[in-house]
Amino acid sequence: MGKYGYISHITFKKGSTLMDMRAMGDDFKVCLCRNKTKKEVMDFIRENEIKDLEELREKGNVGNKCGACSEDLEQLLVMAYE
Fold first, then answer.
1. What is the CATH classification number for the domain harbouring 67?
2. Closest Cα partner for 44 from 57, 27, 25, 28?
3. Using one digit for the tens of pLDDT, what is the confidence trace for 42-74?
4. pTM beyond 0.85
5. What are phi and psi of 62, to 5 degrees?
6. Cβ 73 vs Cβ 63: under 8 Å
7. In a domain, 2, yes or no
């Protein structure tokens, strides 16, 4: 893979930490395949009391195509109940 790795739709230098979803604005595209923003996903998690990634994928139709946004979605699941 070269100097850079790819996670979701961001590029990061190998060895760096993944981005913190708290720092991203509400209009940040979390899932490019399903065109879902951070706000849309957070609202869905809270409104439907989603507790895990599998349930979010099934009921929310997000993160279930290529799966590259899985780590971002996991962060949102934690943030939704803080």
1. 1.10.10.1100
2. 57
3. 999 999 999 999 999 999 999 999 999 999 999
4. no
5. -140, 140
6. yes
7. no
